Amino acid sequence: MNTIPAQEIKRRGIAAVDDLIETGDVHIIKNNQPQYVVLTEVRYRELIEAQDEAYAARVRASLEDLKAGRVRRFASAEELLNALEIEDAA
Questions:
Q1: Which residue in 6, 39, 88, 90 could disulfide with 43, CB within 3.0 to 4.6 Å?
Q2: Prediction pTM value
Q3: Half-sphere exposure (CA, 13 Å, Cβ side) for 66?
Q4: Angle formed at CA 33 by CA 1 and CA 9, multiple of 5 degrees
């Protein structure tokens, strides 16, 4: 994991990140904790695309469940919570 203290960026500017970003995402450390991550534009677009693909896959799976009748309907939120508690206990 590439890390850099926030103070180093404050001192050197974005040039402090330039060398590190070539080998991967850069985690910025503030108060001894990772606080931020700097990504290249290409990496950012890859993450957004993967997120969109995962969303579409979840929607497709839900629609398939609906078509196959694997969906239960509940009259109230309380009824749903009771069903979930029963499933957790099983």
A1: 39
A2: 0.71
A3: 7
A4: 70
